[in-house]
Amino acid sequence: MAHLWKLQKPSPLQWISRVGQEEVVRLINNPTFNGRNALCCAKIPNLPPRRGFCSKESHITKSASVGSQLGSLKSSCFHHRMTLCWVKTSSLVHIRGFCTDKTPKDLQAISRSPRVVAEAQAALVDYLHSTRGLQFPDAEQMSKHSPNFLAKLLKKVENEEDTARALTRFFRYHPINEFEPFFEGMGLKPSEFNSFLPRDLMFLSDNEKMLENYHVLCNYGIARGKIGKIYKEATEIFSYEPGILGSKLQAYEGLGLSKTSIIKIVASSPILLVGDVNRKFVKVLEWLEDIGIQLDWIWGILSEKNSYDWSRMLVILQYFTELGFTNQEFGALIRKHPDFLLDGSGKMVLLVSGLLLKLGGTKKELFGLFSQFPDVQIGSFMKNMRRGLIFLIEIEMDPGDIQRLLLTHTEVFGSYSLKKANSILTYLNVGRKRLCRIIKDDPHQLKKYVLGLKLNRLPNSGESEKSLGEKKKFLLRLGFVEKSKEMEKALKVFRGKGSELQDRYDFLVKTGLDPNDVSNMIKLAPQILNQKIDVLQSKIDFLVNNLGYPLSSLIAFPAYMSYTVERVKLRFLMYTWLRDRGKARPSLALSSFLACSDKIFAKRTYLQL
């Protein structure tokens, strides 16, 4: 992508275009552009996939892997001291084993006592410093901050009573690969540094350049435990000839930066030490000074855990200037919302802008949004915008109305995290069409649908009374007693018109179920009639053709129709695996492995292993 920056003043709007917004330049320069149909004719970018709506191929692959892995998990569970746990991700249940990348807190679980750990660390320090000749601070860092490597050593002498003496004897005849504790002491995990281990070297002294550059960073004041990130992101600096790395650090001091600031900048953006002084970084410094931002203030809020793209930051600075912000206005904006610049190096600003431009927003509207931006992090704002867009799509609002609402009430959608559409429809006891009308009439009603707030049922409208009458007639035809608890329960749950409920009832009868049985099923689980016919068909097909259960099993457990196919598939795979190994009854009722929560199901499964 380097060729994109050959122009001296790249347009940030062109930058947005290159990440998926081809028409951004045209839109931003044409305030009168009519984007009314943008939502219908173009895919909204950067929307996360809906949880629980993964592709079928993805579910099949995940499900198949569960069965193939469980056999080996059981036999090796106690040998490797692994713990089976169920992790709920949306509607899926996965199995995970904790056996790698242990932290220092895990040492007591691996070794016999803290005393053994201390003896092992002392023996390793003595070997690295006295025998191998490493500097004492290096040896101490490697021994006290490499728990995974230490655990491997303890395993070698786990049957010995005197750990220190046993390790001393082990080191005498079995030289260790010093790069493993060295990289781990830097703060890297085994999975991160495995690719960095040299194939033909075991001793650190054989790589003098790496050690010397490592010491340059340490002596400059960078914490040893943070050098791992520098090594991972800018490995080439550890091959510099003597004096080069130090001169690069001094070059940044020449820009007027304090030593403390350079330490933080280098720890967060190691790539600055590669090549000459980074020109984009220098331009960002100059621009920040022009808009009145004190550099010490911006360095104070940098996070060493994050990495920063100074080229993208420069684009953001240019972008706000093109929107019409003066230096004074922009400086005040950055002081109030530093996350505009630091959250993803400005990525969230570009995503918000790209989404609004795609919906037909104008340059003037973007200026108004950012100049009066609500008191919320830009990352959370974008997340809430996505969530609001998905909500409007799920309640089947007209695309033109979605576009209008998102543009006219952007602050509302970005400031509040909405509940899921199905939850709101259930709590309010309304249909999608009525909810769409409510939101279009007063978009500020969305503030009542925020996560954490309690929703109350809405009073019935005139149309609702008519629909309620149809539902009552439908239930009376099925044998429900008027004003009975069963009828009240069904009426509270039912959504949709009475004619739709009748069609779904007729479908269940046509599958071969007795009408009386279907009526009893509805009394037990009235919510099954809230699903469309094609959904009911797919669940019945899966029950009969994939699971091998007879259609009559729905009579005893009609709530099966309320669960997603993905949930049923994963639960059944686990049950099948246990059944094949004699850990579960051969003909288990559907309710036995579906009705319980994921936590209870995981607990029962673990007890069976």
Overview of the molecule:
With 609 residues, the protein is mainly α. The protein contains 36 helices and two strands. Strands 1-2 form a two-stranded antiparallel sheet. Helix 6 runs antiparallel to helix 7, helix 7 packs across helix 10 and helix 21 runs parallel beside helix 23. The radius of gyration is 32 Å and the shape is flat. This is Transcription termination factor MTEF18, mitochondrial-like isoform X3. One of its GO terms (biological process) is DNA-templated transcription termination. One of its GO terms (molecular function) is nucleic acid binding.
**Order of strands across the biggest sheet?**
1-2
Strand content: under 5%
Assign an overall shape: flat
- State mean pLDDT (0 to 100 scale): 78
Structural class: mainly alpha
Tell me roughly what share of residues is in helical segments: 55-70%
Individual helix count: 36
Radius of gyration: 32 Å
Main β-sheet: number of strands, strand sense, barrel status? 2 strands, antiparallel
User: How many strand units?
Assistant: 2
GO molecular function, one term: nucleic acid binding
Pfam families: mTERF
Keywords: Transcription, Transcription regulation, Transcription termination, Transit peptide
Family: Belongs to the mTERF family.
